[in-house]
Structures are given as C-alpha cells and as structure tokens.
Amino acid sequence: MTQIFTLTLSPSLDSATTTAKIYPEGKLRCTTPIFEPGGGGINVARAVVYLGGQANAIFPIGGPTGEHLKELLDREGIHTETLRTQDWTRQNLHVHADNSGEQFRFVMPGARLNEAEFDQLVERVHQIPAGSILVISGSLPPGTAIEKLTYLMQQAQAVGLQCIVDSSGEALKACLDVGGLALVKPNQNELSALIGRPLDNPDDLRTAAQELVQRGAAERVVVSLGPQGALAVDRHHCVQIVPPPVKKMSTVGAGDSMVGAMTLKLAQGADLIDTVRFGVAAGSAATLNLGTRLCSLEDTQRLYNYICKSSQ
C-alpha cells in the first residue's frame, strides 16, 4: 500500500465541554473538559489509523500545549514527526449547550512559524519517499504568506509526491493554480468561489468540478454536499454518493474523517466511486459523535455497506 503522510501547519489542542445553557455575564458551569488533538492533517492521520491504515503526521509544536498535543497522539498510537517552535501551540474550545443542542466553537489564532521553522518543514517534505501521498490540510498560520504554501507544494511535487489538499479560500486557490493535485474536497460555496460564478443546480456543480479536472488543477474533485453526500468527478466518472439519514450530534471532524477515508482508499488503489463511498460513510460516521470525535471503523463500515447496497 502507498505510504501516507500528512502535514498540518497550524495544529491545535482541542478541548470540549458541555454546559446547561449559554448566556452573557454569569458563570457558565461546565463539565470536565475532554482534550483531543486538533488540526486538519493531524485529524486526517488519526482517521486513517482509526480505519485500519497507517499514517505519519508531520506538524510543529510549541510550549506545554504542544507537548500535551503530542502526548495525546502518542497514546493513540499515531506516528508523529514534530518540529519545535518558539510560539505555543494554540488551544481551541468547543462548548455544547444542553438546553438548545447548539455547539459553539471558539477557534484561536494558530502559532506563527518563523522563516527557519517553515524551511525545516519544507526540508522534511523533501525526505518523504517518492510516490507517497501527502495530505496538506488545515489553515495557514498567521503571517505565513500564500507564496510559501505554493513553494511547499511545488517542492512536494518535485520529489514525486501525490498531493491531496483540504483547505479553503486563497490557500486552496493557490494550490489548484500549482496544479496536478491528486484530490481536492471543496464544498459548494468554496467551489463557487474558485470558479467565480454561482452554482445553483447539480449541472452547475458537475460542470465546475469537471473544469478543474480538465484544466489539470486536480485529478479528482470531490464536492462536499453535507447531508446530500458528495459529488465526485475525475476524467472518466461523475457520481453523487448520498449517505443514509443519521441523527447528527456534531459536524466537527466530519470533513477530516472523509478526507482520511478517501486517502486510505486511494493508497489501496481503489477507484473513484469506491473511494468516495468510503469517504461519505466516514464523514457521516463522525457526525454520530458529540464534541470533536472522529469516525469509528465500526460505524464507517456499517454505513459504507449500506451505501454500497443502496447504489447497486
């Protein structure tokens, strides 16, 4: 199986808690927080491992929060390669309000990477074996220019890596401008912004995704459609995979679970349809959990089997 590596430029230590209700001024009594690793690439690596694969997570850490993050990943058996930084790793907060069922996500600015620290991450990318899959996922740290991400992408492709990108805005656009990506997973709004026009119906979505493939920006474009699953396009196929209805507890972690599942399938040599079926199943499985928990193998396999049977 093809080796999988992930790169997270802006990791986090995530804490999740619940309170009776959210209101101003007063003290909000909360349950004991649960700490979990956070950051796009880190969660993709965790999802791959949860689903029975192997992945190597590369990311910077700083301060006690960074140490705590690495300790949590070590406990889960995730293979990590870390770079020590001057700035402390950020800590995010997720609060579930019991009375409304609403979830509030407080996301802090990521730790800055200085010039030398970023260059060390690029050097680590150079050392990844040719032919491996590299997933670059998550936001850019404050102060990191888009041009640095573009340079990193070019270096990764120069050493023969298959690059998957899960980002948004200018960062995603810059990566697509480099071209040659193995897979991207924009949602409908992100794809509309990339193409520069509204996408009001399924034909518009399909055409926009095909445009990215035809111009060589990415080999596979998977458009995330929330409860409607995903629309997937490559040079030979166009398919929409719809998940079964499930009772959603939280959407946190669904996107990373989906990318992790698709990455694992691609590493195993699966075709587009099977890859996206497994990805949609994992994304739906993650929504069954409260807080920041990702997909489980049991839930993902059950939903995957349902999707396969219903689409025959």
From TrEMBL:
InterPro entries: Carboh/pur_kinase_PfkB_CS, PfkB_dom, Ribokinase-like, Tagatose/fructose_Pkinase. GO terms for cellular component: cytosol. GO terms for molecular function: 6-phosphofructokinase activity; ATP binding. Pfam families: PfkB. Keywords: ATP-binding, Kinase, Nucleotide-binding, Transferase. It comes from the Bacteria. PANTHER family: 1-PHOSPHOFRUCTOKINASE-RELATED (PTHR46566), ATP-DEPENDENT 6-PHOSPHOFRUCTOKINASE ISOZYME 2 (PTHR46566:SF2). NCBIfam families: 1-PFK, PRK10294.1. Belongs to the carbohydrate kinase PfkB family. This is Phosphofructokinase.
